[in-house]
Design a protein that fits this description.
Layout lengths: L1 H15 L11 H16 L3 H5 L2 E8 L10 H14 E15 L5 E15 L5 E12 L5 E7 L2 H9 L11
Parallel strand pairs: 1-5
Antiparallel strand pairs: 2-3, 3-4, 4-5
């Protein structure tokens, strides 16, 4: 009897453990492909192809502290500025996740954590920064809201730092 009770308790425990819910939003896979393509186009500096993935009414939240949300032109200008100031841009060690609304319901949005690396075009300095990005999409599958979180000011400080002067000694 005792064994049966223990076995029932173990079985009950195993079946009562709740696993993380699976993403059930049918738009997620297509939106994920769009977000990945958007980053691929960013790293290859193809701003014109990126534009087709962005909703004309986009709201963009820049990683720079104190900036107001930008529109389509602001997002494109920011992307172009990064691309003009950096070469060999890569996004790696990334994790892509489905997003939810405020009630925890999967809504087709995409979230990602990763690491950006690049070389400054003026100084040649290499930068590496961890980041978080989110993308919400409209019904046409375009990026409708985008937010970027990373130390953008720190990236620029490292990128623009003058090379260390080499010491010379007189003999």
């Amino acid at each position: 009897m005792k064994k049966s009770l223990i076995i029932l308790l173990v079985i009950g425990f195993v079946f009562s453990c709740e696993t993380a819910p699976k993403n059930t939003n049918p738009k997620y896979e297509a939106n994920l492909a769009t977000a990945k393509e958007y980053f691929d186009l960013f790293t290859t500096e193809d701003i014109e192809a990126q534009k087709a993935l962005i909703c004309p009414g986009v709201t963009y939240h820049s990683p720079f502290i104190g900036t107001e949300p930008a529109n389509f032109d602001g997002l494109v200008a920011d992307n172009k500025a990064w691309q003009d100031n950096f070469d060999d841009i890569t996004y790696s060690e990334n994790v892509w996740l489905p997003g939810t609304d405020s009630l925890g319901v999967f809504n087709g949005s995409v979230r990602t954590y990763g690491t950006w690396t690049a070389k400054n075009t003026q100084t040649g300095n290499l930068v590496k920064v961890n980041s978080y990005h989110y993308f919400d999409f409209n019904d046409a599958g375009q990026i409708h809201i985008q937010g970027d979180y990373f130390d953008a000011s720190g990236v620029m400080a490292v990128a623009m730092k003058a090379p260390e002067a080499t010491e010379t000694t007189e003999e």
